[in-house]
């Protein structure tokens, strides 16, 4: 029988004055209560370990750390500069650092912000990998970019087709390029598809 909402049950718990952890009293033999308190304490420890939290209070759900955003963008631009100088391996390392920084964003920041950052960074790192013929690595990155943003991302679709073509996987390259063109016409995608089709026709 369900209890009335006006009935209050005293839960046998106490707080450790040093660690602030909530724990059940020794007299309690409730395993469910113990598990729930452990989950609560784990959450408390996690929140305390996040640098952005001030005085134990997390920021509003829509808050974005301006320092982190600036650092990620600065690292991305530094990677772009290295790429322009054809220092492709250095560009890969810089984009990797930017990706790592983006992935450490606190969970309360807008998820779309993280998706936008990552799709661009993965696409950039893929292009740097292409510069040094790291085709499998480039393909993995470009797949990640496309997963995050299929529409309005023609460069990523082109790079995927390029990777597959260079790896000799022309049928897959054709499918990837045709898939990219489903989201809008693009001259470079169409040109590469023409080249891939020509190669496939020669094999017949």
UniProtKB/TrEMBL annotation:
Pfam family, any one: TPR_8
InterPro entries the UniProt entry points to: TPR-like_helical_dom_sf (IPR011990), TPR_rpt (IPR019734)
Molecular function via GO: Hsp70 protein binding; Hsp90 protein binding
GO cellular component terms attached to this protein's record: cytosol; nucleus
Signal peptide start-end: none
GO biological process: protein folding
SUPFAM superfamilies listed in its UniProt record: TPR-like
Name of the protein: Tetratricopeptide repeat domain-containing protein
Organism annotation: Tuber borchii (White truffle)
Classification of source organism: Eukaryota, Fungi, Dikarya, Ascomycota, Pezizomycotina
